[in-house]
Amino acid sequence: MHLLSVRSYGLAAFIVGTLSCAVLLAHMTSYFQTESYTVASFSTAIGDFERHKWKMYELADLFVDFEAHIDDTFTWAVKMIYAYIKASYTDDLGHTHEMIVWDRRISSKEDATLLVTFVNRDPTEIYPLRSLHVGELANKEVQLSLGFNVIPVGGLLRWDDLGTFVSKVLPAKYQNAATAMKEAAGMSM
């Protein structure tokens, strides 16, 4: 009769070996996943663009409306998808600044159709389009792109950036939404 420690060692080796094979197979099947993202519509507008009264930064409101379908990406090997909208601009020195203005974690296939309308200054959103340097955002082209991180059950993390969908130029001077709508209609204040 073997000792209890020898039997427990054999059982532990069997469990570790079996789990290692399962993780290896899950990793190998992650290369066969299809990446089908469909972006049906993506539109944006610029609302308020102002300097904060007490703090030294600029703040711009973006009104974003988009629809994306990522249902086919969910398979048995996908645990979660992290979707985000990235805003990027280049300053006068040539440095590219990137910031996330919206994100969502999608954990089921039923939630994989994104119908989103948001304003990034909404209190529920935590990522405003903000520059810590006054005058840096004025008259800059802001590019919005949609990206996904596919988090598998086991295997490699995939980072998929679908490219720039919308490029908007921020105004050269500060404005609020009412002024922007009047100027767009041809009525100046």
TrEMBL record:
Family (UniProt): Belongs to the SPCS3 family.
Main location: endoplasmic reticulum
Subcellular location: Endoplasmic reticulum membrane
Taxonomic lineage: Eukaryota, Metamonada, Carpediemonas-like organisms, Carpediemonas
Keyword terms, alphabetized: Endoplasmic reticulum, Membrane, Signal-anchor, Transmembrane, Transmembrane helix
Pfam family membership, one: SPC22
Protein's UniProt name: Signal peptidase complex subunit 3
PROSITE patterns: PROKAR_LIPOPROTEIN (PS51257)
Domain of life from the UniProt record: Eukaryota
Species of the source: Carpediemonas membranifera
Bilayer topology: Single-pass type II membrane protein
PANTHER family for this protein: MICROSOMAL SIGNAL PEPTIDASE 23 KD SUBUNIT SPC22/23, SIGNAL PEPTIDASE COMPLEX SUBUNIT 3
